Amino acid sequence: MEHQVGAERRLTRLGGRVRSCTRCGLSRTRTQVVFGAGSAEAKLVFVGEAPGRDEDLAGAPFVGAAGRLLTKIIESIGFRRDMVYITNILKCRPPENRNPLPEEIACCCPHLDMQLDIISPLVICTLGTFASQTLLGTTLPISSLRGRVWDCRGTMLVPTYHPAALLRNPGWKRRVWEDVQLLRRVYDDLVAGRIPRGALKAPLTPE
Length: 207
Prior knowledge:
6 strands; alpha/beta; Uracil-DNA Glycosylase, subunit E; single chain
């Protein structure tokens, strides 16, 4: 309980600082910062790309159609949204939902790094190309990254398609289901101690 209170307090303080951030030009066009939401004690963290229009207005991540789909995905593997933590690479909405610029990612990544340090999850699930490439430091497309388990600075990471992309491409549903089933197996193995944290030295492809 003491650790939980400490993590919540640290996240709250960090959120306060991020909400006044002016590191990049997005601070001039946002409605508000979308810091993140969920449990400071979460063992599973979902990382998306950036807030959209609905999130920019609400000040919370994944609240639109893609967010409703993400909720269903989370529940399909036995979790509730309040059991996990959800955030994005960027904390401010890019105009017209354009792709994040490299300099915006560089400015915002320290915020995400601190979030992950505070929460210290067992597993990270990246949603889409930008989140996956950023955390893995690669230019490989999401189609090459998904379906495997990767190491992200000692934390296991499972990439999959962004829910917004899944809405546009419903034929990817089976692939996402396979990815989140893999995510659940990795989570269960870590919790049960069948694999130790930080044990992954190369990408793992399930049989």
